[in-house]
Amino acid sequence: MKASNLFLSQRIELNLEPNEFLKKAGFVLNSFNSQKIMIFPPLGSIFLNKLEKIISSVLLENEILPFKLPPIQPFDLWKQSGRKKDFSDKVVYLKGKTFGKDKFICSPTNEEVITNFAIKNIESYRNLPLNIYQFDTKIRDDGSSRRGLIRTNIFPVVEGYSLNENEKSLKESFEKFRDSFEKILNLLEITHYPLEKREGYITFVANSKKGDTKISHCKCSTKIYNPLEKKCNQCGEDYKTQLGLELGCLMSEKDNYSKVMDSNYISSKGQKSNIFMGTYGLGLTRLLYTIIEQKKDKIGINWPKIIRPAEVMIIPFRNSQEYLNECAIIENDLKIKGIETIIDDTTGRFVKKLERADIIGIPNKIIPMLGNKKGGIIQYRGETFLKNKTIKDYNKIYSSLI
Q1: Are residues 290 and 344 in the same domain?
Q2: What is the span of the domain harbouring residue 210?
Q3: What Cα–Cα distance (Å) separates residue 353 from each residue in 153, 227, 259, 325, 344?
Q4: For position 96, what pLDDT does the model report?
Q5: What local confidence, expressed as pLDDT, does residue 371 receive?
Q6: Less CB within 10 Å around the terminal CB: N or C of the chain?
Q7: 204 near 251, Cβ under 8 Å?
Q8: How many angstroms separate the CA atoms of 289 and 206, rounded?
């Protein structure tokens, strides 16, 4: 992978706020001169692909199965659920010969679609519970898009749904998704805490300077939403308010959708019963934003290893073809060993390239040396830890990276 294809800025400052930093570092770019629609160039796409693999692995471990819903849906479903009037000015409509006028919308969320699926496909208690997830791109026109990745009109998510026989089964699915989301956030090394907005509605929140919700906390670390009392019941201390960024949520819908859309199944006793449903989700770009905000130190982004964009940046001492050829040989050998590598073939000062690699979070740097003293130098996050100018191959370098 060549740095010249990664849309890296020549100058990336570590003190930039996360949205600007991610643009300079080539993870996101604005589209159509709009702050509300983002493009994910190679590094951003690599991050999302790795994230999806991590999430899928955890969910499948908990027997939450992949599913794929259509990206559009008939808006009349929302009439059945009673939400059409409230959302009519917040959705994106499709028009054309196939879809008619204002009859189909780009899917902003899928509760109605899942309920309709249950009506057509769930007949017996033997089909339940059903715990499913999908990766989706949400498209909304709610007018609240602002602040870069925190809130845009089009954004990637992982969303989950559970269809259950009763409230007991729904609680089991709810906990299964809760455990999965907690594990995902821990694997990403994101400092977070679950907050209960109300019974059956939990959000995962991270501290953030540009968060979109206010969190009250006290000396004993109890955190809640907008307390009704002025002092904490746990320690008697006054609450203080800080900003938090919601990363995702878990919501028990019980049988609310089943009641209004007539979604039911035949129970083990042969009775017609309502289907219970839970909805669950994590915002993928909010996870990216939070990692950048939380994992930045005086050197650069200290990515969790599991989501790091690459392990090694190979930086030629000179930008000659001879040096670039040597870099390609090293890259190929590292690729065979399963080590993800970037060659910095861009123009610019050598020292600035070293700094940039640290800032964007590529921890290992190999600097091949040619001529009479052929060998290499390795740095890890700004510090040289292997300098060998007499080696004929790079075995020592490789072994230090594996």
Answers
A1: no
A2: 9-71+107-294
A3: 35, 49, 61, 18, 8
A4: 79
A5: 62
A6: C
A7: no
A8: 11
| Final residue in a domain of this structure, among 294, 318, 337 | 294
DSSP string, 227-276: -SSSB-TTT-PBPEEEEEEEEEEEEEEETHHHHHHT-EEE-TTS-EEEPE
Q: Is the pLDDT of residue 221 over 80?
A: no
Report how many domains make up the chain.
Answer: 2
Same domain, 216 and 322: no
- Whole-number CA gyration radius for the chain: 25
In this prediction, residue 389 carries a pLDDT of 44
Q: What is the pLDDT of residue 397?
A: 57
Shared-domain flag, residues 143 and 229: yes
Give the CB-side neighbour count of residue 319, counting CA atoms within 13 A: 12
pLDDT value at position 328? Answer: 93
Residue 77 and residue 86: Cα distance in Å, rounded? 13
Asked whether the predicted pLDDT for residue 229 surpasses 70, the reply is no
Looking at the domain assignment, is residue 82 inside a domain?
no
Specify whether 180 is located in the same domain as 285.
yes
What SS3 state is found at 287? helix
Kindly report, residue by residue over 107-144, the tens digit of the pLDDT: 999 999 999 999 999 999 999 999 999 999 998 886 65
Q: What are phi and psi of 145, to 5 degrees?
A: -65, 130
**pLDDT tens-digit readout, 19-33:** 889 999 999 988 776
pLDDT single digits (tens) 80-89: 999 988 888 8
- Cα angle for residues 81, 87, 90 (degrees, 5° grid): 150
Q: In this structure, what token pair is assigned to residue 364?
A: 């290992």
With respect to residue 76, please indicate whether it lies within any of the assigned structural domains: no
Could you give the CA distance from residue 164 to residue 59 in angstroms, rounded to a whole number?
18
Residue 231 neighbours by CB under 8 Å, 6+ apart: 218, 237, 238, 239
SS3 at position 331? helix
CA distances from 313 to 316, 330, 364 (A): 10, 11, 6
